[in-house]
Amino acid sequence: MANFHRNTLAALAMSQAWLSLAGQSTPPDSLQKLLPADAKIIESADIHLGGGQTRTLVLWMTNPERVMAHWDWCGDDVYGDHWFGPTSLSLIDASNRKLINTIRVHSASDAENKGSFSVPFFTRESPYYVPHPDKDKRGKPLLLKLRDFTGEGVKGQFVLFDYAACGVDQTSVFGYSPKLDKVLQYSVEVTQGKFPPVVEQWLDQIFAAKPDRPGNWNLTWEPGHGADEWIHEEVHFDPARQLFVDRQTITPYPGLAVAHCNLETQRVPELLRLVGQLAPDFQGSQVRGVQDLIDANHSAGTGAWVTFHGKDTQLDITWQRNDRGNIAIEFMTASELAAAIRSQAKKWCDAE
Questions:
Q1: At 12, which helix (H) or strand (E)?
Q2: What is the pLDDT of residues 49-81, one digit of tens each?
Q3: Comma-separated ranges of CATH 3.30.450 domains in the chain
Q4: Rounded distance, CA 352 to CA 347, Å?
Q5: What's the pTM?
Q6: Main-chain dihedrals φ then ψ at residue 300, nearest 5 degrees
Q7: Is the alpha carbon torsion for 11, 16, 18, 20 positive or negative?
Q8: What is the DSSP string of 231-250?
Q9: What distance in Å separates the CA atoms of residue 244 and residue 235, rounded to the nearest whole number?
Q10: Measured between alpha carbons, how far is residue 195 from residues 190, 237, 247 in Å?
Q11: Environment class of 120 (CB within 10 Å of its CB; exposed 0-12, middle 13-18, buried 19+)
């Protein structure tokens, strides 16, 4: 994302007027003294816990670049005019002027958590909340719009967004955990269909939607972009583990079906050769490309167009390896081809 339309200021002699302190009641000088000397406060918000206790969330960056949107690609709808740089979120005990903890904020695509993040200062009113949009539905966002996302009775969490595709945003919940008295990026335990659960920190779309009640979502949506399926998600917060739990059910469009297979990882080439026998144009470089992706990625997906009984059909392949040397693979394709894969594969793998 950093490479899109970036304009770097010749000098970062910016005033605090550029760096919003929306919603802040704790004096900014008091916050600044508790952060690194080069910290630039973007926004802060107080959480009143009762009994005279106050916690303050502080979103801050280090030497951010000012990037102006061209408003000519879908990512501009998320980032708009934004700051780009190392980004952090701190929790401060405002009553006693003490720093409790700090976490880094990373892009959803940053697997190594070493990069920077895009923080908008002028953007569209969706997905971020813009209190006073102009005629073009743009304006200054309120980033720390605190709500009770966990259902624990404290309005101490907010959502950040990252661009995934046109109309699809990555979402993640950040904020205050009253149980741990810390700031967190909340994890999500995701179980998709027959795959085993995995723990993520960013989810497509979910946290941009209004919950049915605090800590609970139940919705169905379509990803588009060639994904011929509906995704139904039931999400709830688990207070004991301090994470969200997401159960996903994938429903292929009419005419498509899924073949699911659990097997030992070393038998994957045999499974791919079997699919190639059923769909003869799925051979050679296509099979080698899929095998290379499976070898390189713990979990991922890819796709191809194949011919089955003289008809062109999409073949989407999704997999997830575990640490015990096994792998779960799903093929979503024409119903007839999916049935043929299940029938043949069940002879030597746990096929469903």
A1: none
A2: 988 899 999 999 999 999 999 999 999 999 999
A3: 256-351
A4: 11
A5: 0.86
A6: -170, -170
A7: positive
A8: EEEEEEEETTTTEEEEEEEE
A9: 7
A10: 9, 20, 11
A11: buried
Provide the pLDDT confidence category of residue 28 given band limits of 50, 70 and 90: low
- Start-to-end CA distance of the chain, whole Å, equals 39
User: Six-digit token pair at 141?
Assistant: 């966002």
Answer yes or no: are the C-beta atoms of 255 and 335 closer than 8 Å. Answer: yes
Q: What are phi and psi of 335, to 5 degrees?
A: -55, -40
Residue type, 137: K
Per-residue pLDDT for 226 more than 70?
no
Helix crossing, 268-278 with 335-345: angle to 10°?
Answer: 130
Residue type at 273? R
Contact 77, 95 (CB under 8 A): no
From the list 38, 139, 144, the residue with the least C-alpha distance to 85 is 38
Residue 261, SS3 per DSSP: strand
CB-based contact 170:108 (threshold 8 Å)? yes
What kind of architecture, by CATH, is found in domain 256-351? 2-Layer Sandwich (3.30)
Beta-carbon neighbour count of residue 224 at 10 Å? 12
Write out the two tokens for 298: 């713990």
Provide φ and ψ at 9, rounded to 5°: -65, 140
